[in-house]
Amino acid sequence: MKPLHTLSTFSFKKVLHHIFDVDTEGKTEHGDINILPKHIAVADIGNSKIVVLIASMNKKGEIEVIGMGEEKSEGVVKGVVSNILKTSQCLKKALDKATEQAGFIPDSIIAGISCTINVHKHHSILTRKDSFLEITANDISELETEIHQSLLYSDEKVIYTTAQHFSVDSEHGIIDPKGMTGTKLETTFKLITCQLTYFKNLERCCNLLNITLKAVYPSIIASAKSILHDDEIAEGVALVDIGAGNANLAVFKNGILLHAESIPFGGNNITKDIAEFTGLPFNKAEKIKLQYAEAIHTNINSKDIIEIEVLKQRKRVVYKKDIAFVAQCRLEEILDLIDYSIMKHIQKENIVFGLVFIGGVSKTHLFKRLAKLIINTDCVVFPKTKLIFTSVKPEIKAQLNNPVYSTALGLLKLEIRGQ
Q1: In total, how many domains does the chain have?
Q2: Segments forming the whole domain that contains residue 369
């Protein structure tokens, strides 16, 4: 997309209408366009929580978050909507909280999902009719159109596309071909897809609320947009989000997405392990995990005990060291799988900025130490998000660099500023 200041008034109005669904018909007293911004809504549909943000453009031209809602997630298992009614009810509660703050009810929403993903490479070629005309964003869009028309992905939903380096005629390794001339434009796209049924179930949830599901992005890509910096993506970095249902991974190098994967283990697996070991129900095991689980068990006093109330006037005693041992075993398995996934695609010494961990599991005591021991590279745990947006509401502003909301904030950036 061209810089906004280079666009004609008509094109500028079209861009704003596309991004914000704005009414740009009014004029100011100086004859300038009076932009009346409406809103854009995003939802992070997670296994443990649903977060909704509503944003608009303020008078200074800044993107401002004006509504925020959070609700415990139900009906979502490993990033997939398994109970449409329950998930739609949770989404409605989060949406209601956000709309109450924003004073506006959106009619469409952009969602982030953390389900199992598939990664494909797709080579596209465009033969241009006039080789003397400059290559524009429209030419690149034509290359992308071929992906969505391809029957190769008929049972999948393409939720993210990103071009690797371009070639123009005999010149290769081009990062951005716009402005160049040539006959043959080609590139290899990295595609992220999910099962079509996953998308349809989420779409049905939105339909029940009379809201249109405008677009869906992988949550790990959205988080990368709000967490990672350009120099990290250029020099090499891996972002890992270990959530309740699964662990999502994205590896970046030379400014492009190198690899993405979903590993089907997360915090809920640790809870289930503790429940099986202690004989406790899941909800009580979850509380034990949050209070006592540690990533390394060796330094815990073997005599330290935990008293757990099972029934009224009935308690069960377990050793704290045993709880930590159960948690450590599962964490080691998850980290081993992450390590293996990375080594298949890049040598770790080429990941200059190491691994960046987010997600509730990475808050486990001594997690960073265990990750360094297993993966043998630099690790950063729970960094603050970049301050991309602003808000005049103190209760929202205080959360805008909290990595818990990295997916929702990244969704805003993806939709507003492009991929």
Answers
A1: 3
A2: 230-383
Residue matched to tokens 């944003």: 55
Helices (H), 349-405: 367-375, 394-397
Q: What pLDDT does 11 receive?
A: 41
With CA atoms as reference, report the closest residue to 223 among 233, 231, 235, 214. 233
Q: Would you say residue 224 lies in a domain?
A: no
Assign residue 266 the CATH number of its domain.
3.30.420.40
Structure confidence by residue, pLDDT tens digits, 123-159? 999 999 998 999 999 999 899 888 877 767 788 999 9
d(CA 61, CA 40): 15
DSSP 359: S
CATH number at residue 89: 3.30.420
pLDDT score at 417: 66
Same domain membership, residue 330 and residue 406: no
Find the helix packing angle between 84-102 and 196-208, rounded to 10°. Answer: 50
* CA–CA dist 33, 12 (Å, integer): 10
Regarding whether 336 and 260 lie in a shared domain, the answer is yes
β-pairing verdict for 118-127 and 184-195: antiparallel
- One domain, residues 377 and 395: no
Any residues with CB less than 8 A from the CB of 229 and at least 6 apart, and which?
Answer: 386
Half-sphere exposure of 30 (CA within 13 A, CB side): 3
Cβ distance 297 to 365 under 8 Å? no
- At 418 the pLDDT is 55
CA atoms within 13 A on the CB side of 359: 28
269 lies in the same domain as 405: no
